[in-house]
Amino acid sequence: xxxxxxxxxxxxxxxxxxxxxxxxxxxxxxxxxxxxxxxxxxxxxxxxxxxxxxxxxxxxxxxxxxxxxxxxxxxxxxxxxxxxxxxxxxxxxxxxxxxxxxxxxxxxxxxxxxxxxxxxxxxxxxxxxxxxxxxxxxxxxxxxxxxxxxxxxxxxxxxxxxxxxxxxxxxxxxxxxxxxxxxxxxxxxxxxxxxxxxxxxxxxxxxxxxxxxxxxxxxxxxxxxxxxxxxxxxxxxxxxxxxxxxxxxxxxxxxxxxxxxxxxxxxxxxxxxxxxxxxxxxxxxxxxxxxxxxxxxxxxxxxxxxxxxxxxxxxxxxxxxxxxxxxxxxxxx
Length: 333
What we know:
The chain has 14 helices and no strands. It has 333 residues and is mainly alpha-helical. The protein has one domain (3-317). Helices cover 78% and strands 0% of the residues.
């Protein structure tokens, strides 16, 4: 092994150790040192044998399986890729995103697993995340609209009509970049500070409408899984909001959490809990069950899978060996 190769190996090992230590440190801080999360964790363990909690836990593989399926459909557009590799890439991205601002490590985790067209893969990851955001905005805007009309704008019919129209326009504007991505690229060209992002998103128009339908559909299914888990955990902790308003509160909580940038996955916790307790408080629900359900949702869907993803990170091959001409000839023959 030459000096350059040895140096690369040492850098890879150091990077893996750094990610491992950061992930474990954040997990320890969130689960054991933060009083609210620690209490929710103890409550979750105490009620783990109840049917709602077991059902919520059973949906965790479905949640991340749908995300892996979504990434597989996006990645195979770039190169032949197996579902197993896509699943591994999602978990590596989850773990790296756990310790990075706005989860940008998710991009790196998925791109590393690809063998080629890694620049285009940035656009593919963005497309997948944007589809998930679209599902969140479509449902969340309707959820927040319910609360605004029900609790804040009573007696203002003109404002209510304007708000409904604004919600419809917002949803149309969010869907537009998916099916008219060339307009998005043209807009990026017009704004000088954003021009450098155009080359990363240039792959988006190469996806057909059928492929985008499939990815958006998987995103909506995954969103439904999140909502079902939240509802089951609320039930487990004794919160009993009416079904319709309860779904509106869940959707509004997810939207408010998505709109606020975060330093890492741990920082999402406070935003989601503040949103959840306020919206469910309007429905007359006590704070503690809602807080416990929201924190438990984060533990089972983010904290535990991020810890599991460390197994994939430690086995990750960052630098791939280049094939010799003889090997390439053998493969092509």
